[in-house]
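User: Quick sanity check before I run a bigger batch. Here is a single chain. Can you write out its predicted 3D structure?
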Amino acid sequence: MKAEVEAAVEAQIRNRPPQFVDPSLILRVRMEGMLLEDEWEALGLTLLASDEDKNIVLFSSAGDLAALVQRLDAFDGPIPEGQRGRRYEGFVARIEGVSTLAPRDRLGLRLRQAGFTEATDLQDDQVYVVDIELWDFGVRGARERKATEIETFITAQMGDVYDVYIGPSITLLRAAASGRVLRPLLSVPEIAYIDLPPVPDLEAAELVRMDLQNAPAILPADENAPVIGVLDSGLNDHPFLAGSIVGQIAFPAALGAADVWGHGTRVAGVAAFGDLRAIAPGQPLQPAGRLVSAKVVQDNGSFYERRTLPGQMREAITRLRAEYGCRIFVISLGDVRARNEPGRVGPWAATLDELARELDVLIFVSAGNRCPRGGAAVEQGVTEYPGYLLEPANRLCEPAGAANIITVGSLAHGTGIGARHAHDAHVRAITNALEPSPFSRSGPGAGGIRKPDFVDIGGTLVFDAPSASLQGAPRFPEAGLITLNHEFLRQLITSGNGTSYAAPMLANKAAYLLRRFPWATSNLIRALLAGAAALPEPSELALQALDEDAKARICGNGLVDTLRAAYSDDHRVVLFAQERLGINEFAVYRVPIPAEFQSNGRRTIRVSLAFDPPVRRTRAEYIGTKMNFRLLRGCEVEDVFEHFRARNEEEGDPPGIPNRFKCGLEPGPNRRDGNTLQAAAKSFERDTSAYGDEYYLVVRCVGGWAEEQEVGQNFAVTVELEHQPATQLYARLRQRIRV
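Assistant: Done. Predicted structure follows.
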């Protein structure tokens, strides 16, 4: 261990640029178990960073590691008389390895994504615009001096420093310099990363300045398009919605239907059109559905104090369902004072669960918003991302924890920074495109079920040093979705960010599905959405230090691909059923497996299940019935029925099914069985022809407290078979199913 420390010190001294002669040292240490931060600080070392793999980065301002070397020598020496173990064994034995940071370790994520893996990849005569970030290694004065030293070095080498930001913990320089200048900086101990700046988002200022003369042609919603109900602050007659608004009602009528607060018109705009930054030049706009507004909040954005929320919700949703045939509802509202306690929901959530089941409707609810760390330390919105998304204070707020509704968290659409800040280090991005939004709340929901169900685009925040705050839209239009402005005579278009916009984004997709499948139950739409959802790769990278359950608490089943949910194609087929199953009964579905799917490359089976159980918030077990599924292969159907059928006491235990016959879908039963929306998948690369040309999907309904009052449970299930694009899977399966 001592030799590793000496080698790390020698490497830093040898590689340090001659212009930087200070004695600072950086060590990277791999620990087992606890990080022992207090122990390291007692040795004069500052902990700069740590990760889930127990790697820590330590800083020595004086380059003096004598105290550490002394402990290592004592550990290697003889065991003192009367002592059972080595000296400092509890500390030294936890150290698995010591090394230094190589220049390549200081290449930032964007540089690595651009193909830069070594310092030598930076070309001598190529000028790069980069962000140079320093470790938080000391007081502000020390970081200022180091930043000045770096700036002097760059300008002396004919480079440019555009901007310098020094805050409570962040120190950042925005510079333009050649590879010849940047390579030595990769060996400066105090520098944490050198990276490419965030890529500016599509400039939004021009979009929000749009007037009717420059607007695209607007088509009214198709007369057969589904009706989307927006329960919010009202809806104004925006020109983009001409011919698409079928109703504007207030609950109670005394509230008036006009949208004074402005939130409802923005939410309705997203439900109708999605994000308007996706406008295709020269193409007309047409809403995904017809709109009906139910105003349920006052003109100042507060709830109406003379009505209970459950009463308002039941009256509004029931009436919109009866009078307008509305089957999609958007509720981008929440009670931040009523965060879900583990396993519990409030009366508002329970009412929505009851209505979703009774009326066969889709209710989309935003997960809720919270400023990172509650806004108490704004720089931590950047430095602690995404860890704070899982803080207890960041749990879902009422009614987002409900079981039968669709809860939607938020993803960023980009960095949130426009081109006007290209050389401004005082404006710092938190996210890249398709990473979790820094304000999105996390699950779980009622009874520990997976929540949110999905994520969709809802915008982001940026760190704005001049105002010492985290800012979003509309101050930074690029940080939000582009949508309709309620004061359209003053400004036609505006921008906004929050999970309030992620919920109608997904409702917009559901409207396309319901238009394609008007006969589909709400359970089938939920199952189709789940089968077409996946965690985007940028989110996977941003959350890579977390386990799968933690990722699901932030992103649920992921982001929905609308086309995947709505269509099969040559190499991908979706089979479905929407039925009712008796309590404590099971159904077995034959899944045809054509020869083309049994070999020749990577194949995937995905199964999704949705059901809407009765609920009761006064019970310890909130959900009244439970359902689950299992996928079996290679066994006889008689054996499947024999295993799952009910048995009396005299018959004893059922015969088992060997593990080789079970498809190991992920997530496994322990992680999915408790949810009202379940999805799991299995991929194959080896030949599976030994398992035959039929698999068996078993769907079970397990009665809970509702067994005494319910005779059956509605549900929908989908199975997707996907092969490589060249495989003609659809035609073969269609032929078999007809037979």
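The chain has a mean pLDDT of 88.

User: Great, the batch can go ahead then.
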